[in-house]
Amino acid sequence: MTLAKGPSPLSSSGPRSPGRNRQVADLLLEVRGLSVDYGFGEDAVHAVDDVSLTIRRGEVVGLAGESGSGKSTLAFAVTRLLRDPGVITGGEAVFYEWPEGSYRAADTGGIAAQPRAVDLLTDDREVVRAIRWSDIAVVFQSALHALNPVLRIGRLIDDVLKTHEKGMSRAQRKARAEELLELVGISADRLSSYPHELSGGMRQRVMIAVAVALNPSLLVMDEPTTALDVVIQREILESLMELREKLGFSVLFITHDLSLLIEIADTIAVMYAGRLVEKAPAKALFRAPRHPYTYGLTRSFPSLHGDKKTMTGIEGSPPDLRKVPSGCPFHPRCAWAMDICAKQDPPVLTLHDASGTREVLCWLQDGAHEIPPELNKVPPAAGSAAARPSMRGTT
Fold first, then answer.
1. Which tens digits make up the pLDDT trace of 222-258?
2. Which of 101, 132, 223, 318 has minimal CB crowding within 10 Å?
3. CA–CA gap between residue 240 and residue 199 (Å, rounded)
């Protein structure tokens, strides 16, 4: 991976300077203006384009969008796992390392806890290596490919503990490995099994066990339930939420399945053609989307109850990221596209309503244009009974 940027103004060794005038309370990850290309020159693929995203302590943020929208690239860039020819061309990514035991509350013995700001895009790889896995862990898309096929499960977990917890004895590492498997609902005798001897759901649970082995404060999950049937998928999600309640970590959950995020996420961010087009509380985004692309996604999966509805989907295909259309990248597929949509990039608009605060990248919401009824629904109030529909729109 190549990092094409100037010197970072962020410190990687101490508390954040108060002179930057930003609210740090409860922030865990702050991404600002991040851009990532694959390749150089005219043929470069603009996979991530000026994306800003924040994750707070204890929050589950869902990142949704069609395949190729830049979701995984964004996560891999932030965790510095991006492979060549990936190039980070701009932006900042800051991880706030909070004192141990302060993940659930900022109050530590009556004294407000202060985080250490770590520049994740620093050229010092030792800084990133110290954060990765111990503070930020990743659950990859395909457990069968992510797990070493020639190592037993116990050896895989032992390697992680031996590398990062050098003070642990062999007996302590074995006891910890057994504890981790039990945390994710697998019998300890499976430590002697190879990955191919486990079912798909069990392999995914092992990946989660490895990820939480060092008690990270942020878990990045890249399509962790892909290729699993809906029953196993739900079991994995329930196990994940139980672990989150027990251990107090935050989650960045990446998927193309918006209906899945509605079940588990506090906040959902939607990406299209490398851009973040809408970010809102999960309930508000599902019940009252503000961007035409988000509206199309919500109309692309059926409800299991209630009246039958025609699934319309979204016409057309995502654009070639080497030649993204001018203006709003979604305008060739948008039913409400206006002349300005093809000529000027839409601004990032901050909207406030009964559900809270949301951001949307659409000219229709700038106050100067008539908003279609489909994009102007009244959202449920924060904390209302309609806060979050059950999985697959079952209510």
1. 988 877 778 888 888 888 888 998 888 999 999 988 8
2. 101
3. 18
**DSSP string covering 222-248, please?**
ESTTTT--HHHHHHHHHHHHHHHHHH-
142: exposed, middle or buried (C-beta count within 10 Å: 0-12, 13-18, 19+)? middle
Tell me which of 123-132, 305-314, 334-343 is least confident.
Answer: 305-314
21 lies in a domain?
yes
49 part of a folded domain = yes
Cα separation, 195 vs 218, in Å, equals: 25
Query: Which domain CATH number covers 320?
Result: 3.40.50.300
Give the position of tokens 């009246």: 307
Cα–Cα dist 40/32, whole Å: 22
For residue 107, the one-letter residue type is D
**CB-based burial label for 52 (10 Å; 0-12, 13-18, 19+):** middle
**CA 264 to CA 25: how far, in whole Å?**
23
pLDDT at residue 258, rounded to an integer: 87
Distance CA 177, CA 157 (A): 6
221 has which bridge partners?
A: 139, 253
Does residue 343 belong to any structural domain of this protein? yes
Within 8 A by CB and 6+ apart from 91, the residues are: 5, 31, 32, 33, 34, 35, 50, 51, 121
pLDDT at 321: 92
Closest to 277 measured CA to CA, from 294, 253, 263, 255: 294
CA distances from 212 to 44, 176, 249, 252 (A): 36, 11, 9, 14
pLDDT band at 329 (very low <50, low <70, confident <90, very high): very high
Counting the structural domains of the chain, the total is 3
Give the rounded percent of residues in the chain with a pLDDT score beyond 70.
86
Is 262 a domain residue? no
Asked if 2 and 118 sit in the same domain, the reply is yes
DSSP structure class, residue 206: H
The CA distance from 353 to 355, in Å, is 5
Q: How confident is the model over 46-66, as pLDDT tens digits?
A: 999 999 999 999 999 999 999
Full residue range of the structural domain in which residue 13 is found:
1-57+76-122
End-of-domain residue from the set 255, 284, 313? 255
Please indicate, yes or no, whether residues 227 and 293 belong to a single structural domain of this protein. Answer: no
Tokens of 30: 């702050």
Find out whether 34 and 90 touch, Cβ atoms under 8 Å. yes
